[in-house]
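ok here's the first one, seq then struct tokens
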Amino acid sequence: MSDIRSKFLEVYSVLKSELLNDPAFEFSHDSRQWVERMLDYNVPGGKLNRGLSVIDSYKLLKEGKELTNDEVFLTCALGWCIEWLQAYFLVLDDIMDNSVTRRGQPCWFRQPKVGMIAVNDGLILRNHIPRILKKHFREKPYYVDLLDLFNEVEFQTTSGQMIDLITTLVGEKDLSKYSLTLHRRIVQYKTAYYSFYLPVACALLMAGEILENHIIVKDILVEMGTYFQVQDDYLDCFGHPEVIGKVGTDIEDFKCSWLVVKALERCNEEQKKLLYENYGKADQARVEKVKELYKVLDLQGVFVEYEKETYERLLNSIETHPSKAVQAVLKSFLSKIYKRQK
């Protein structure tokens, strides 16, 4: 795996160099330096799970056949397109949320001299994707399908972000709006499509498949993405900050979290009153009251049960798929997230 990772990072350097010398724009020394610094700060800094899973998935679809150098490069390039997309979302997301840190360092817009220039940087990141696709995939029979896929997933993700933002509008905090249906919609659009479906869809297109023939695969991956977010919501409250790498703030941020939705389903009138009074307040004592209520309602037990049921349901769905190679891809995703602690 470390071998694949180093190859993946090599391809980043190639793509970055191509973008910094794109003939469609006349770079000055300063502008080239700015874009390079912006890319290095925002694109390769994460866990790279989404990008690397394009390579993993394609290898599994090829059922053990050795990949050519060209195939390795192209799967890496598609993986990086997803990492570019992620960077674009996060740069703008941090501005909207007025966040302080991201991946253990100050958010890009918090850097000296950056500020709101980060909005344009986000747009540059987004525009790099079609440049990469055009340079390396223009002659491929699936080129138009790739463009279509990235455009559609971006539309779904930004629309999911909108539902999330308008649900948590300051001054309109209303817990009664929160339900499992709303939680699912936000998660499905904001996270599941680009984090789970997109890497596999890229691999399927490269393997010569038609995406319309794989609606079931899409449904399973979206369900997996939902499960992943429920785990995130759970870890935000019950995970250990030193393990998950961040201090959870869903309670004070008034997030439509799986935990608060489950709490609303299970609590009596008195407990509901306590939740309404204390949820979404940036005061540690109030946050602790909510966490205490979660424990009283045994949300840890409810989560363990949910995880078990979801895992079994997903596994059954995967095993009914006619293709063993596709099963292997889906099982690989599931095994990476089942019972994760971070």
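and now the second one, same deal
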Amino acid sequence: MANLNGTTSDLRTKFLEVYSVLKSELLNDSAFEWTDNSRRWVERMLDYNVPGGKLNRGLSVIDSYKLLKEGKELTEEEIFLASALGWCIEWLQAYFLVLDDIMDNSHTRRGQPCWFRVPKVGMIAANDGIILRNHIPRILKKHFRDKPYYVDLLDLFNEVEFQTASGQMIDLITTIEGEKDLSKYSLSLHRRIVQYKTAYYSFYIPVACALLMANENLDNHIDVKNILIDMGIYFQVQDDYLDCFGDPERIGKIGTDIEDFKCSWLVVKALELCNEEQKKILFDHYGKEDHADVAKIKALYNELNLQGVFEEYESRSHEKLTTSIKAHPSKAVQAVLKSFLGKIYKRQK
């Protein structure tokens, strides 16, 4: 492993090298008798689903750990271990996405067909999701078994997986076909779905991994968890906003929250701000596939000045998060939290 204290592209290259090492270990796991065929299948499945995203969650373990070490040069082992934990989060993400896409009957993901849509894959993808999930404890066992924080790592991944699956459940049961009822959508429901479905695994777990590696006790960092959860909620509100108002070229996807009857921050705000007449428009046209219906909802969003409402929310959230971060006693932890906030504030994609 070469020096990892260089530029972002170096970081990314080194991070991908660790992926190759972990993949090769998993494809030679002695707990299973491999054949060429099974090895080829798993390798293709991993390459298709694990390294394809932006890798933000994984890379932020290394970033956070570096900041916690306050400028000390990391050893090769530290770099490898932080990268391995980063990859465990990317594996967790891949597992969620493979199964999510089946549940949502989606077509594309990261600009290519969803894994279950690939010829000859189909419902084998459900079992592939289970395999992805089971790779995480294999990686942890191989590289962290002798570490004092091993049990804490296992607990952390198990708990976050449970929270994410439970968040997904609230989301799914809220949008059951034939029970579409806008009146049950509220800011508190939106917050609960986002907190559990997104914030824990996207914001909390990368920092929690870095804290454990730095021999910190997570019970002493409840405040850090709370700030990161708030950041995750702010991130999802941005996502909801960009789904409707973002440039599809920039965000890399065409938003369908309106058609999909999503409990989006925008629709919740619209319900809060609208008069009876506008409420009727929302109830009549939200969650319909037709372009004319979607256009009516977007026109209503503009009428209610939701872009302005969002900008106000964005600056209020930023201010609140900045104040919470400054109140943290540790400068190193402050640096980690500031780095996260800096990456997402006023993002366009």
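notes on #2: The first helix runs from residue 8 to 26. The chain has 14 helices and two strands.
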